[in-house]
Amino acid sequence: MKVSCIFLPTLIADRAIAGRICVVFDVLRASTTIVTALENGCQRIIPVATPAEAQKMKEKLSGSESVLLAGEREGRRIAGFDLGNSPGEFTAERIRGRTIIMCTTNGTAAILGAQGARSVLIGSLANLGAVVRRARVGEDVILLCAGKEGGISLEDIVACGAFVEAMVGEGSGSSGIELDDGAMVALEAFRASRDDIVGVLRKGNHGRYLESIGFGRDLETCAQRDVSDIVPYFDAATGSIEVRVAE
Amino acid sequence: MKVSCIFLPTLIADRAIAGRICVVFDVLRASTTIVTALENGCQRIIPVATPAEAQKMKEKLSGSESVLLAGEREGRRIAGFDLGNSPGEFTAERIRGRTIIMCTTNGTAAILGAQGARSVLIGSLANLGAVVRRARVGEDVILLCAGKEGGISLEDIVACGAFVEAMVGEGSGSSGIELDDGAMVALEAFRASRDDIVGVLRKGNHGRYLESIGFGRDLETCAQRDVSDIVPYFDAATGSIEVRVAE
Predict the structure, then answer these.
(1) Alpha-carbon span A152 to B72, nearest angstrom
(2) Most CB atoms within 10 A, among A9, A218, B159, B176?
């Protein structure tokens, strides 16, 4: 089986994702927030591209579902929305049983951009082991980094590297798993920084920005590994992200 | 000063290269071949995008200069060309004093794509120290990986990481040099694989391909570090790459 890593959604066109499992990583913060929200019992999450779309979707669903709007622009909660994009906001009290319509700058865009894949899963450090177990059925896997406004993100690549190492083991690769150059770069980046993952989140461009606007605690939350067995699954037919507990 | 790393020429549009120094890395093999050719006394190298352009340029120049055609498609010498893209072919006997018109799949395209920069230098492991010394005048530097047909290349990113480490030193970065996420990923990738650079070249996608078609020796050649003090400089006004010996 092959494990490939695409560093930015804009590079998807260059690679065949059709028919593959695609795991979308937006460590800071959409992926981690989605895992947290589903862990804490929200019904489903509907990713949308723009705040206007989010409002429209809310009007459409409000008769039948209990809806919350969540998302950010430039890291901050969108005006008029119920929640921002900090995992810590998505407590059981606030979100249990609710439908969350979510709009973030990079993460939801990456998820929507991956729709050509056979299966779109959401990956973060929080649910890394669970996603790895789900992927280990032997099919080719594509790891997709959300990045940050068209630039690559250190923390997404390092998280993909953690995924790759969990797949191939800690040796130098007689695992029978074929890595593309992106997956190899991610693996090396993870190996060089594995002892200080929160440091990775702090030194990347987006982590520094989040700290500067008061979201430093989110970095610690998003650096925690294997705190959930939830594997969020994006169903293109319903347009929503739901729970898939790892087998 | 800032050091940034762009993993593919197609990502240049997302970043401002205007007014910056840009170092183009195509370790396998165009950058290494260009350094070797200039080290061995060729007059200048004119990068062109297509074999047809190369032939046209040759006709234009043949009255006044002694011209050789060099380049590859799918790694092999282009039919009717004098030289392929193996550094070992560019011996002093063959190329001293000659003008080389060069057409390679990724490297020459990356060089031509970087023309918006104030200064375009050619970087490889062969001349890494010399390029670092040239860059250390304090200006912002952009490292551009040529990649391979739209996909990223492990060896280019690792070579950029070697550049970054030479700039910032071996510590964790109180050097006053600001790295973007790409430069940080490159640095980590280099640090994890520094003890086996030829192994890096052998395991990447393009290295494996070159070995499979009989160019395994080129990998050893291209893995050699600091064997030249030549800093090739692309002059957009003349359209040619010439020698700039590191001060």
Answers:
(1) 30
(2) B159
How many whole angstroms separate alpha carbon A232 and alpha carbon A8? 20
Residue spans of alpha helices (H) in B30-76 = 30-39, 51-61
Q: Where are the beta strands (DSSP E) in chain A?
A: 2-6, 21-25, 44-47, 67-73, 76-77, 99-103, 119-123, 141-145, 178-179, 233-235, 240-242
Q: How confident is the model at residue A32 (pLDDT cuts 50, 70, 90)?
A: very high
Q: A188 vs B158: CB contact, 8 Å cut-off?
A: yes
**Token couple for A21:** 């499992």
**pLDDT band, residue B77 (cuts 50/70/90):** very high
How far does chain A reach from its first CA to its final CA, in angstroms?
Answer: 20
Kind and range of the H or E element at A236?
A: none
- The three-state secondary structure class of A38 is helix
In this predicted model, what pLDDT tens digit does every residue of B93-147 receive, in sequence order? Answer: 999 999 999 999 999 889 988 988 989 999 999 999 999 999 877 789 999 999 9
- pTM of this prediction exceeds 0.80: yes
Residue B217 has a CB neighbour count (10 Å cut-off) of 13
Q: What is the pLDDT of residues A178-228, one digit of tens each?
A: 999 999 999 999 999 999 999 999 999 999 999 999 999 999 999 999 999
* Residue in chain B nearest A190 by alpha carbon: B188
E strands, B74-167, where? 76-77, 99-103, 119-123, 141-145
Least Cα distance to B172 among A196, A190, A7 occurs for A196
How does B46-81 read in b/e, with b if 16+ C-beta sit within 10 Å? bbbeebeebbebbeeeeeebebbbbbbbebebbeeb
Mean pLDDT of A116-138: 92
Distance from CA of B200 to the nearest CA of A (A): 9
The token pair at A33 is 């927030």
Q: What is the DSSP string of A137-200?
A: TS--EEEEE--BTTB--HHHHHHHHHHHHHHH-SSSS-SS-EE-HHHHHHHHHHHHHGGGHHHH
Distance of alpha carbon B7 from alpha carbon B150, whole angstroms: 10
Per-residue pLDDT of B198-212, as tens digits, reads 999 999 999 999 999
pLDDT given at position B247: 47
Q: What is the DSSP letter of B212?
A: H
Q: Cα B183 from chain centroid?
A: 17
The answer to whether A133 contacts chain B (CB < 8 Å) is no
> Under DSSP, is residue B122 helix (H, G, I), strand (E, B) or coil?
strand
Minimum-distance CB partner of A181 among B153, B180, B192: B153
Q: Which residues of A touch B11 (CB under 8 A)?
A: 8, 10, 150
- State whether residue B152 sits within 8 Å of chain A by CB: yes
